[in-house]
Amino acid sequence: MADKEKKQKRRTIKNIAKERTAMPEQPPLIRATNFEEVALGYTEENAVREAQRCILCPKPRCRNGCPVDIDITGFIAKIDEKDYRAAYDILSDATLLPAICGRVCPQEDQCEGVCAIGKKLEPVAIGRLERWIGDMAIENNWFQVPEITPNGKKIAIVGSGPAGLACAADMAKAGCDVTIFEALHKPGGVLRYGIPEFRLPNYVIDAELANLEKLGVKIECNVLVGRLFTIEQLRTEMGYDAVFIGVGAGYPTFMGIPGESLNGVLSANELLTRCNLMHAADESYDTPLGIGNKIAVIGSGNTAMDAMRVSLRVGAEHVYCVYRRTREESPARVEEIHHAIEEGVDFHWLTTPLEILDDGEGRVRAMRCIKNELGEPDDSGRRRPVPIEGSEFEFEVDRVVYAIGTNANPVIGQTSDIEMNKWGYIDTDETLHTSIEGVFAGGDIVTGAATVILAMGAGRKAAEGMKVYLGLEDSEEDAKAE
Amino acid sequence: MYEIVAREDFSDQTFLLEVRHPMLAKAAQAGQFVITQSHEHGERIPLTIADFSKENGTITLVIQAVGKTTKEMQADCQVGASLFAMVGPMGIPSHISEDVKKVVLVGGGLGVAPIFPQLRAFKEKGAYVIAIIGFRNKELIFWDDKYKQYCDEYIVCTDDGSAGIHGLVTQGIEQVISKHDDIDELIAIGPPIMMKFCAETTRPHQLKTIVSLNPLMVDGTGMCGGCRVKVGGKMKFGCVEGPDFDGHQVDFDELMNRLGRFKADEKIALENWQKHRENCRLMNTEPEE
Ligand SMILES: Cc1cc2nc3c(=O)[nH]c(=O)nc-3n(C[C@H](O)[C@H](O)[C@H](O)COP(=O)(O)OP(=O)(O)OC[C@H]3O[C@@H](n4cnc5c(N)ncnc54)[C@H](O)[C@@H]3O)c2cc1C
Ligand code: FES
Questions:
Q1: How many CA atoms lie within 13 A of A472 on its CB side?
Q2: Using CA positions, which residue lies closest to atom 3 of ligand 2?
Q3: Closest-CA residue to A312 (of A289, A293, A284)
């Protein structure tokens, strides 16, 4: 009898809610005029309902889809049980930044992409649940400083993006004396200067950074490593026992077409940095923005979406996206493209810029483009755009923003003997140790521009390598041998 | 916070700040710059390091008050005050080669300050050092003594003839070239238009000419590309690939156009700030930030 009851209770794809619980959002035309967060977050009722859509697979595939191996069904089950604190504890075993990752991870390519119910129904909204718990932890100050026994080791972390932050946290928890050096005047890396406020509010970054400081991590801003001192000096005269390099890959690329040096042509990183880090749209800050009326953003990744949506919010009349492939091939998170369309961005798919035209006074007047059709798949497996002869056209714009990718940040490479590949990304072994003894590297500076969660995962992996290197922990093989 | 330990006003436009930062003073080399932000809401602006003292643990900046940010610094950066942010030394240091036996350094106006570390470095390497400095008039000249201490020849040019040669630094260059046929290198720092004409003057003589460019910057780490300049037909990021470039290869017209990128915004910012200051003065209150 009892068994039967249990069976009935067991959730299957047949007896759960078909549609995922919608996330309350600001209406598109209102939010496109402000910098408040777009997605407002679940209520408790929303969260519990969504948690109950998870069928708690015994061998959950979502966990394999997570780059940092979060026990996803574990934390969702706790939400269902309304034991939110326990849900947070499960999350924080694997991730340092749940409130951040819940907002910015490309879940559709990761956990949600392999969710078992996703074959027939909409997958469980794992990211939204993660965010909900992350936010609740911030609100209720749930972060707990574990007992730390100082071990006298000094660690330097170069760069305060997600890779550096994650490595710093793990090393501090292991008892090391950790200092982060950041070139900009505020920490956070791309989280701070790149991803805009309406997607990732500053208070969330500040809260996660405050947790790091509770662990005893020191953050020194305004330090350009390589120039103020070198990586080699950190290891020698400055006495650091190990170093982690997480300087990112933010060096913006341009296409090399005519007209790129006209005034009005800029990188998405410049636009976003002016807005996010320097608060150019706020009159009480001095940094100029110089935003125009008609803005073309080239590219269709997250950075492009952010640049377009920021442009709308600072008052551009018309924002175009110019992308040589189609919506299906766009590298941006699905949600970002959806949001950008809702907010009124005008997409020119299958379009390649040829030239940026001068107004006669050194400023942008218009852009000349050509239309493409899709051909055979290329190396990336995506169908290659092929220009259609005679389809050139011109349209009026006064700003052109490049969001077509970035390269390795160059300063460490210029100032150190560290081994790099020919594109300037740092070479490492599988423990993320570099060619310089005691120096590890991870995140975008090793892989090329990727994601927050991969950078964070790399920071944690390097921390593992570092602990073994410092003799604080046995390596996995040694542990097995014992 | 980075404390201002000394200040000197050269004119009603130009002033010097000595800022404490022992590590930076130790690391700084000729030709490098810093990015400063005078207060939290301020702009990040690049300033070439005009001098550094490892003993005192300070670096020296010479600033011309032209826009809102620099005029505000002129008003607020007094001894004892602090800069909100200062990062550096940035940029690739100037190449002070042993092979350079005779060198000409040309400083125009404010450029007299940032070229000084190179002048001293060449002298210390044993080169024969000729300096040519240019100002509008005699009153604006600064660092006369400092220059005389390190120069083998010191040539002053003024627009109005109130001191030295009556004319531009390019006249000084012509004069020096006709006198010396064994100059290895010429380095020019000053307004872009001056550097352009210096490069045009030396081009027919095939005299290697290095200029230090001052594009607009935000981060100074190679992350925004706002500082891009064209050199030899190729795009370079001034902050990480410069600031020194081959003067014969630089597209100065493009540089000058790009320096005017925010002209309209800058004008409004300056007017608003001046109005704000004036109101505060009239109401006899401290200006609020
Ligand atoms: C606009 C934009 C939107 C994005 N959106 C998403 C998203 O929605 N989801 C997602 O998962 N990913 C997104 N990404 C990608 C993600 O942000 C990056 O992959 C991630 O931040 C990389 O982390 P990192 O720690 O390797 O480097 P970064 O975050 O780049 O941090 C590097 C830090 O090092 C500092 N630094 C550099 N050189 C030095 C030096 N010499 N000395 C000291 N400090 C130095 C930099 O100033 C920076 O603060 C986005 C990227 C951008 C640009
Ligand atoms: S100032 Fe941003 S890249 Fe040079």
A1: 21
A2: B222
A3: A293
| pLDDT in the model for residue A286 | 84
Confirm if A180 and A248 have CB atoms less than 8 A apart. no
Chain B contact residues (CB < 8 Å to A): 23-24, 27, 32, 37, 41-44, 68-69, 84-90, 92, 218-226, 228, 230, 235, 237, 240, 254, 257-258, 260-262, 264-266, 269
Ligand 2 center to B238 CA (angstroms): 7
Structure tokens at A81: 């049980």
CATH fold for domain A12-140: Fumarate Reductase Iron-sulfur Protein; Chain B, domain 2 (1.10.1060)
The pTM (predicted TM-score) of the whole model is 0.91
Separation between Cα atoms, residue B140 and residue A71, nearest integer Å: 70
CB of residue A257 inside a 6 A radius of ligand 1: no
What is the pLDDT at residue B287? 54
Query: Which positions of chain B have pLDDT values less than 50?
Result: 288-289
Atom number of ligand 1 nearest to Cα A103:
8
Report phi then psi at B86, rounded to 5.
Answer: -150, 120
Domain boundaries, chain A: 12-140, 154-250+407-481, 254-404
| Neighbouring-strand partners of residue A243 | A156, A439
* CB atoms inside a 10 Å sphere around CB B98: 8
Q: Do the domains A12-140 and A254-404 sit in the same CATH topology, yes or no?
A: no
pLDDT at A454 over 60: yes
Long-range contacts formed by B51-54: CB under 8 A, 24+ apart? B51/B113, B51/B116, B51/B117, B52/B24, B52/B25, B52/B28, B52/B117, B53/B25, B54/B25, B54/B26
Distance, CA A270 to ligand 2 centroid (Å)?
Answer: 8
State the DSSP code for B92. P
Q: What is the DSSP letter of A277?
A: I
Domains and CATH numbers, chain B: 2-90 (2.40.30.10), 102-259 (3.40.50.80)
Task: Please give the C-alpha separations between residue A83 and each of A75, A134, A208, B22, in angstroms, as whole numbers.
Answer: 9, 14, 22, 53
Q: How many CB atoms lie within 10 A of CB A386?
A: 13
CA distance A283 to A272: 16
CATH number 3.50.50.60 given to A254-404:
yes
In B93-183, which ranges are E strands?
A: 102-108, 128-135, 153-158, 165-166
Closest residue in A to B219 (Cα–Cα): A184
What are B103-126's pLDDT values in tens digits? Answer: 999 999 888 888 999 999 999 999
H/E run at residue B246: strand B244-246
Whether residues A183 and B228 touch (CB distance < 8 A) is answered with: no
Ligand with smallest separation from the Cα of A107: 1
Burial label for A339, CB within 10 Å (0-12, 13-18, 19+), is: buried
What does the alpha-carbon distance between residue A430 and residue B223 come to, in Å, rounded to a whole number?
Answer: 28
A286 with B69: Cβ contact below 8 A? yes
Cβ-proximal residues to A99 (8 Å cutoff; 6+ apart), any chain:
A131, A134, A135, A137, A138, A204, A207, A208
Q: pLDDT value at position A1? A: 43
- Ligand index nearest the alpha carbon of residue A339: 1
Q: What residues of chain A have any CB closer than 8 angstroms to a CB in chain B?
A: 183-185, 193, 221-224, 227-229, 250-252, 254, 256, 260-263, 266-267, 269-270, 273-274, 278-279, 284-290, 362, 402, 409-411, 414
Please give the share of chain B, as a percent, with pLDDT higher than 70: 97
Test A414 with B240 for CB contact under 8 angstroms: yes
* A154-250+407-481: CATH superfamily: FAD/NAD(P)-binding domain (3.50.50.60)
Positive or negative, the Cα torsion across B216, B218, B219, B221? negative
- pLDDT tens profile B189-244: 999 999 999 999 999 999 999 999 989 999 999 999 999 999 999 999 999 998 99
Q: Whose CA is nearest to atom 27 of ligand 1?
A: A248
